[in-house]
Amino acid sequence: MATQRTYLDYNATAPLAPGVREAVCAAMDLAGNPSSVHKEGRAARALVEAAREKVAALVGAPARRVIFTSGATEAANLALTSHVVSPAGNVANTLIIAAGEHPCVIDGNRFAPEALLIAPLTAEGMLDLAKLERLLAQVPRRACMLALQVANNETGVIQPVKAAAALVHAHGGIVVCDAVQGVHRMDCGARALDADMVFFSSHKLGGPKGAGALVLLNESIEIAQPVLRGGGQERGARAGTENVPAIAGFGAASIAVVANRDMENTRLAGLRDQFESALQARFPGVTIFGANAPRLANTSAFAMSGMPAETMLIGLDLEGIAVSSGSACSSGKVRTSHVLEAMGVAPDLSRCALRVSVGTGTQTDDIEFALAALEKVAGRMTTRRVKSAA
Ligand code: PLP
Fold first, then answer.
1. Neighbour-count burial of 220, counting CB atoms closer than 10 A to its CB (0-12 exposed, 13-18 middle, 19+ buried)
2. What pTM was estimated for this model as a whole?
3. Of 99, 116, 125, 334, which is most buried by a Cβ count within 10 Å?
4. Most distant CA pair in the chain: distance in Å?
5. What would the pLDDT profile of 35-50 be if each residue is shown by its tens digit?
6. What is the CATH classification number for the domain harbouring 333?
7. Nearest CA to ligand 1 atom 12
8. What domain range is 284 assigned to?
9. In a shared domain, residues 131 and 155
């Protein structure tokens, strides 16, 4: 087994960004509850509010519009409900979900199954705007909500959020945007996306796990019914004592992201391109998903026909490489990716889908190391297949 480890799974979670550990540790040394009025409580409150400013700055929103949650999953559960006070006081009684959304959106919303419509993707993994327009025509005006992510976690394909928002807004609807994979890599502010609400998660940007945010970008929107009720924290939108250390770390990570987002994107795109050109040269039959769509600079989703992802994943792990597969294993069954299915990828190829996602710690050598490991593992699998066929 290899001793060197190369982590190429940044879309799953990212290592701590500079300054985060210190912010978390400092917050852990504070005894106060942010809701207490004494000096200790006020010190904890000050940390939470300082972090709120930093997280808000990521999307150019006022700090008072940030609701801290335990992560993006909780934020999705909070936002995707008909209990939203919308600009014209209308109730969204239909939720349109783009077919490639994360399970926290597909399964984590508070709409009845009969109130859900799925908006198809193109073969390149982007929301099909013409089909969205047709779906909108089926729902009454001023009565729908669209859930659309900024970029897909499996393929990295960037979604046409602004164009979709124009269609939804023309119909009087609301747009909720999952910016989990995008907020640290592109502008996810109100002007860039035109979304009404946006949510994201601390641990994807190098903050600690267990913190996230829902940002109400549209000033006239409020969540009328929280998921968690109790002490009225977060202006009544999310009860429960704030996770002060995680929130402080989230704030520190947000600062680190903003500091060098553009330069880092250029560097990561170089690494991704290095990986994909070598992949195509060494494995001529490889399929790169969403290759012709706008994609995140750091993500490469691909499949080598006949090489099941789960076996590749284990082989690569033993060679010291951490990547993800496009399939999910639960209850002993391997399910193929709903994202690739929505793109029309055949199940046999989908079962071979792997995701490499690079990040701040990735260097050229890591890419070379991963490619060598891929060759080794794929070579072993081919030999085994030839032997068993003989
Ligand atoms: N949305 C996307 C696009 C994601 O990639 C993830 C995590 O993988 C989530 C939502 C959920 O985030 P969390 O697990 O932090 O709640």
1. exposed
2. 0.96
3. 125
4. 78
5. 999 999 999 999 999 9
6. 3.90.1150.10
7. 72
8. 6-15+261-389
9. yes
Residue 97 shares a structural domain with residue 197: yes
Alpha-carbon torsion 61, 97, 346, 352, what sign?
A: positive
Same domain (yes/no): 206, 84: yes
68's enclosing H/E stretch is: strand 66-69
In a domain, 1, yes or no: no
Evaluate: CB of 102 within 6 angstroms of ligand 1.
yes
Q: Ligand 1, residues 9, 70, 73: which to mutate, most atoms within 8 A of Cβ?
A: 73
Q: How does the average pLDDT of the chain come out, rounded?
A: 94
User: Are residues 244 and 294 both part of a single domain?
Assistant: no
Compute the Cα dihedral for 80, 84, 89, 90 and give only its sign: positive
> Given 25, 104, 144, 329, which residue is catalytic?
329
pLDDT above 60 for 64: yes
pLDDT digits (tens, 9 = 90+) for 241-265: 999 999 999 999 999 998 889 999 9
Question: Does ligand 1 come within 6 angstroms of the Cβ of 357?
Answer: no
Q: What integer pLDDT is reported at residue 42 of this predicted model?
A: 98
φ/ψ of residue 214, rounded to 5: -110, 125
Count of residues in the chain: 390
Please determine, for residue 354, whether its predicted confidence score (pLDDT) is greater than 70: yes
Contacts of 62 (CB under 8 A, 6+ apart): 56
pLDDT at 8 over 90: yes
- Quote the CA–CA distance of 236 and 41 in Å, as a whole number: 19
Instruction: For residues 54-77, give the mean pLDDT.
Output: 98
Cα(28)–Cα(279) distance, integer angstroms: 45
Query: End-to-end alpha-carbon separation of the chain, Å?
Result: 29
Q: Give per-residue pLDDT as tens, 297-350.
A: 999 999 999 999 999 999 999 999 999 997 555 445 567 899 999 999 999 999
Q: Which of 271, 379, 234 is nearest to 316 (CA)?
A: 379
What's residue 2's pLDDT? Answer: 72
Partner residues linked to 6 by β-bridges = 321
User: In this structure, are 198 and 318 located in the same domain?
Assistant: no
Same domain for 349 and 290: yes
117 touches 95 (CB < 8 A): yes
